[in-house]
Specification:
There is one protein chain. The protein is mainly α and 100 residues long. It has a single domain, classed as Helicase, Ruva Protein, domain 3, CATH 1.10.8. Helix content is 77%, strand content 8%. The protein is built from five helices and two strands. A two-stranded parallel ribbon has the order 1-2. α1 runs parallel beside α3 and α2 crosses α3. It is globular, with a radius of gyration of 14 Å. 19% of the residues are buried. The mean pLDDT is 88.
Length: 100
């Protein structure tokens, strides 16, 4: 199990290196990733890569608009990535609309 955990942390590092975006999965998010890896009989890294297909574009968009480069992903974000990304973009636009 610790090998799977290490795969998730390695993915965070690789994502940062490739995209200059810092991801951090909460412990509950890591648990969800590990659960999926075991259910799918695959590496945790592969589960993370599946998630990154949706994350990469959305997080780059948020970074361009907000300069935010650090993102914390919760279990809820892993379970409903579309809702998480929608909420993050919505929060950004609410902040920009109410600036001076």
């Amino acid at each position: 199990m610790s090998n799977l955990y290490a795969q998730v942390r390695r993915f965070e590092e690789r994502f940062h290196t490739e995209h200059q975006i810092q991801l951090h999965f909460t412990d509950e998010a890591v648990d969800e990733i590990l659960k999926r890896a075991l259910e799918q009989d695959t590496a945790a890294f592969n589960v993370c890569q599946e998630l990154s297909r949706d994350l990469e574009y959305a997080l780059k968009l948020v970074r361009e608009r907000t300069s935010q480069e650090d993102f914390v992903l919760t279990r809820e974000a892993i379970c409903d990535l579309d809702a998480y990304l929608h909420q993050m973009i919505q929060e950004h636009y609410q902040k920009t609309l109410f600036r001076g």
